Amino acid sequence: MPGPISTIARLARGWFYGHQDEVSIVPDRDFIDCTKYRGGSWWPSGWLVALSGNVFGGSESNPTQWEKGKWGIRHNDDYPKDTEAYEIVGFLQLPGGRDDITDIVVMRITTDYVEAFGRKVFYNDRQGPDAFVQGVTALYQALLGRSPESAEVIESWRASTGGNLDLVRQGILGSPEYRDTH
Fold first, then answer.
1. For the chain, what is the domain count?
2. Helix or strand holding residue 179 (H, E)
């Protein structure tokens, strides 16, 4: 980065620098570890940390800020509040919007699935309930009024959709059984 460097602080094993309008954490050359920003909050907590991207208006001394995007780590509300279960979540503001973007989720990464724009792709490489089985069963009950025929049927859905419940939903909605009952 060209330009003057401002030393903000000397760290125990590195430096906290300012370069024009950016900040950097630079480790000592002999300290073999990546630099990190660590944020958090005390238990119990909803949000642990967030990074916000804002558009500024007004004066430099007291700017108005409009949040346009936010990434963070927060409690995963698929679990009770007293369970330490977290997710990585991303938000984007709708074009031209000036409101708080906290409810416009575009991506979530949880211990059970990855969700983008409301579509969930489940993975099941950990112990505990199989979220994909639960999701397929819920879709069958909601759309067809019954449970799946067998575990083999659910595994067939998993193999043919890559664990994407939105594709399972589309398959059920396009099935002769769904058309005959609706």
1. 3
2. helix 176-181
